[in-house]
Specification:
The complex is a heterotrimer of chains A (120), B (197) and C (571). Chain A is mainly alpha-helical and 120 residues long. Chain A has 4 helices and no strands. Chain A has 2 domains: 78 residues; 32 residues, no CATH class. In chain A, 72% of the residues lie in helices and 0% in strands. Chain A starts with 9 loop residues before the first helix and ends in a 6-residue tail after the last helix. In chain A, 23% of the residues are buried. Classes of the chains: A mainly alpha (120), B mainly alpha (197), C mainly alpha (571). The interface between A and C is medium-sized, with 20 and 19 residues.
Chain lengths: 120, 197, 571
């Protein structure tokens, strides 16, 4: 089956993943917003790559499988951006989603009262 | 009825063994299930910046430890696959049970996290799915993930005994792929729910 | 595999039994793809009866409001909602899906690509068992306290999310669970179909030698798999809303109901193509067989199908033009919606071009296939109006929409199903169906069908909204001429339902008393016609090798006008 290819050194990959894990925890502690994003989510992507490529042997699999998995994520992206403008944006040049704006304002108010100053 | 499968199963026009191809398609469909849930979470999360104040109540060390546990169990299952390929079935059996143990530790930590929030005496720390939508997402996403962990553990336990006798060694690879996927889902849930504040 | 013995053509439908299994083991726990296909088919046909019965009940209520409906009783407002909701859900999830994809997919794929079974036979059985469970759960939902769910098959929250609003506490949840189980069943089945046709093709069969119907079923399975995931996640969230009391989709708690609409239609629109493609495939097989002519533009059809599949994922929000979505996105979805009519039209043109110059035999399957073309054209063209966001503001939620999507779904699910059934019946049961009865059934279905829905276009344009229990409560809509149209539509429906008894008689009597079918009654090329009717367990006595494409009809220089795929030499 998969015996044709040389196996990567799994333990080495594992150590690398643990290092990345530490970075992804320490990074956000510094409190710099862009660094938080980069370390938390950028590193999640890198970790995913290593698990997929070496543990799941994707690097030794037919290219077709990468394609399959990437198409899946791209379609999810399509879903996300098709929906985002409705769920996240409530006004534009010539229009305004009054109901959503009011709901959002109420939510904010509700939380300032309840959230004892945790709000940023 | 013959116990051997149909001839169709042994054909491989793509060059990928049938079982593995099936698992890849299964994982593609799982990407959509978890991806859809995560996409919904991100949409709400970006729309409600105050959820960062809620994420403070998650236990980052517990989450980090669980990430470590899952990564390690991923290593164990890939070593089991390696051993199964080398026909060292006792070693493969051992590593499968290490993996199941990893899943068990993960669930114990999860239980500790859940119970410390659901049954907290301090009303500040009491967080149920009804507290607000952030916590609804927290419990739904981690709960769905935990169900996948349990499912994987059950399947691994079932195949491990066949494996020790040398039957169907390729199944280790298949359950391994699934287990790595569950690991990857957690790799994303951890920063989304715990770290991002 | 070794146990396969060659049966002869004169085998009775239920006569062959090589394995000495009990009846129960053979027909209820079989892993044979043909048996599972038939299980799906019979379950789907049973559900079609239920769905048709519901349609009968609420159409009678609309034509004769308040009257006691014969064989049903009085239809109350809550019950009316339950009937329309479950009519829609049943017809799409429990009739179109199982019959078109699961039944034909199971029966045809292994036979057409030349292998002995699905690659995962036990998974196949599991898929049917989960599907059956979903049927049971659906029926449970009708009989719990509060009655069946009445929030429409789209189940928009907050109506569907909060029991105080929809008044069907467990009915709504069980309905949702049933739908989710059905999704899981088809995910498992779809993985099986895709893997089978990718990996288990007969030696010599190139990608372009695969019959179109197999391509279509596989592409439909892939599209289903890719679109249903977010909705499964959404169903879990909606179920949490219903049972735990979270507020994912309830605005009073900070949720957003529009998100559910997106999740639903991200699945719901590709779903239309998921059921359309297998029907198109079935029609293609029939057309080329009965026109005795090569399918026009095999590769063109294939590529346009890919294009349809891609575009189908970026049109979903045209169902939500008046739901308060971002107007800029409405523009984008308007353009993509109009774009998708191009590949579909191209496929239909290819079919017409296949007919051109062919020596057409008007056998029953061919009549149904031609009926599909005509009726579907009507449904497709009216869709262009609804895809334009400005017109949709007027037409939305009117009977125009009802008439439009029935003019697409009826050809897909019912005409496509009958076309396939008449065509492959000899292969499934080893007997021929009666041609005359088949033709009576065809005309008795197609004419009343248009009698139902052409008038409904008119009442829709007159402003009649859907999901209204009694139009007599609305003075503008209670006029005698509109009511006359409603009565006409209902009478047409009853006529159409009565003609289905002709089919039922033909179907069951032919199964036991019909003329014995030869292996290849239609002189067709594809591999399933090279085995005896019905095929034995294991399908092929000797697994075939493929030498050419599936549509080599009337090739000059051949003695016969067909040329089977597995025949090495000239015919």
């Amino acid at each position: 089956m998969a015996g044709a290819h040389a196996h990567p050194n799994y333990v080495k990959i594992w150590v690398l993943l643990l290092v990345l894990l530490v970075v992804s925890i320490v990074g956000p502690e510094l409190g710099i917003p862009w660094l938080t994003l980069l370390t938390a989510f950028g590193i999640a992507l890198v970790k995913t790559y290593y698990v997929a490529a070496y543990f799941m042997h994707l690097n030794f699999e037919k290219k077709y499988v990468w394609f399959l998995l990437l198409i899946s994520t791209v379609l999810l992206g399509v879903f996300f951006f098709g929906v985002a403008s409705d769920i996240m944006k409530t006004d534009g040049q010539n229009w305004q989603d009054c109901i959503a704006n009011n709901t959002c304002a109420e939510q904010q108010r509700y939380f300032v009262i309840d959230g004892d100053g945790q709000l940023r | 009825m013959s116990m051997q499968g149909p001839l169709a199963t042994s054909r491989s026009a793509t060059g990928i063994p049938t079982g593995r191809l099936g698992v890849w398609w299964l994982l593609a469909s799982e990407i959509f299930i978890f991806g859809g849930l995560i996409a919904c979470y991100i949409l709400y999360r970006l729309n409600n910046p105050w959820w960062g104040g809620e994420a403070v109540f998650t236990k980052v060390p517990a989450g980090a430890f669980n990430t470590f546990v899952l990564l390690t169990s991923s290593l164990f299952i890939v070593l089991a696959h390696d051993a199964a390929e080398k026909k060292d079935f006792d070693r493969a059996f051992k590593f499968i049970w290490y993996t199941i143990g990893g899943g068990g530790v993960f669930l114990l930590v999860k239980y500790y996290e859940y119970s410390s929030k659901l049954f907290a005496d301090d009303p500040e720390l009491l967080k149920t799915p009804l507290t607000n939508t952030y916590w609804s997402f927290y419990y739904t996403a981690t709960g769905l993930h935990a169900l996948h962990v349990i499912g994987g553990m059950v399947i691994m336990a079932l195949i491990s005994f066949d494996l020790r006798k040398g039957f169907n060694p390729h199944r280790v690879e298949l359950i391994g792929l699934y287990w790595h996927f569950v690991d990857i889902v957690w790799i994303f849930l951890f920063p989304l729910l715990y770290i991002a504040k | 595999m070794g146990q396969t013995t060659v049966t002869h053509d004169s085998h009775a439908a239920h006569g062959h039994d090589h394995h000495e299994q009990s009846f129960i083991m053979k027909y209820f726990f079989s892993t044979d793809h043909k048996i599972i296909g038939l299980q799906y088919m019979f379950t789907g046909m049973f559900m079609a009866i239920v769905g048709g019965y519901f349609a009968y009940a609420f159409r009678m209520q609309l034509a004769f409001p308040g009257m006691e409906v014969p064989l049903y009783g009085t239809v109350g407002p809550g019950q009316y909602n339950m009937l329309i909701t479950n009519h829609g859900a049943i017809m799409i999830f429990w009739v179109a899906m199982p019959v078109l994809i699961a039944a034909f997919g199971n029966i045809l794929i292994p036979l057409m690509i030349g292998c002995d079974d699905m690659v995962f036979p036990r998974l196949n059985r599991l898929s049917y068992q989960i599907f059956l469970l979903s049927v049971v759960v659906l029926f449970m939902s009708f009989f719990v306290q509060g009655g069946g769910f009445g929030g429409a098959w789209t189940s928009y929250p907050p109506l569907s999310a909060v029991a105080e609003y929809n008044l069907t506490d467990w009915g709504a949840s069980l309905w949702l669970i049933a739908v989710a189980l059905e999704f899981v069943a088809f995910l498992i089945g779809g993985i099986n179909f895709v893997t089978t046709s990718m990996n288990a093709r007969a030696p010599g069969m190139r990608m372009t030698d695969i019959p179109i119907v197999v391509w279509m079923i596989v592409l439909a399975s892939i599209m289903f798999m890719a679109s249903v995931g977010p909705l499964i996640a959404g169903s879990v969230m909606l179920l949490m809303d219903q049972r735990v009391g979270t507020t994912f989709f309830v605005p009073s708690g900070g949720g957003d109901p529009v998100l559910w609409q997106h999740l639903f239609w991200f699945f719901g629109h590709p779903e239309v193509y998921v059921v359309l493609l297998p029907a198109l495939g079935i029609v293609a097989e029939i057309m080329t067989t009965f026109a005795r002519k090569k399918l026009f533009g095999y590769k063109t059809i294939l590529y346009t199908t890919f294009a349809t599949g891609g575009l189908a994922f970026v049109v979903w929000a045209h169902h939500q033009f008046i739901a308060g979505i971002d107007p800029r996105m409405a523009n984008i979805f308007l353009v993509t919606t109009l774009l998708i009519s191009i590949p579909i039209a191209e496929i239909l043109f290819s079919y017409v071009a296949t007919l051109y110059g062919g020596s057409i035999e008007f056998r029953t399957p061919m009549l149904w296939a031609l009926g599909f073309l005509v009726t579907f054209l009507l449904g497709g063209v009216t869709g262009i109006y609804l895809g334009s966001s400005a017109l949709d503001i007027y037409f939305h939620d009117s009977y125009f929409v009802i008439a439009h999507f029935h003019s697409t779904f009826f050809p897909i699910a019912i005409i496509g199903m009958f076309a396939g059934l008449y065509h492959w019946y000899p292969k499934m049961f080893g007997r021929m169906m009666d041609e005359t009865l088949g033709k009576i059934h065809f005309w008795g279905t197609i004419i009343p069908f248009n009698g139902i829905f052409l008038p409904l276009f008119l009442v829709g344009m007159a402003g009649q909204h859907r999901r209204i229990y009694n139009f007599q409560h609305f003075p503008d809509l209670a006029t005698a001429d509109l009511q006359g149209i409603r009565v006409f539509a209902t009478v047409s429906l009853v006529t159409m339902l009565l003609f289905q008894f002709v089919f039922a008689y033909n179907f069951f009597v032919s199964m036991f008393k019909g003329e014995k079918a030869p292996a290849n009654p239609w002189k067709s090329n594809t591999l399933e016609w090279t085995v005896p009717s019905p095929p034995p367990h294991g399908n092929f006595a000797e697994l075939p090798t493929v030498y050419r494409g599936p549509y080599e009809y009337s090739v000059p220089g051949n003695k016969e006008d067909y040329w089977p795929q597995n025949m090495p030499d000239r015919n």
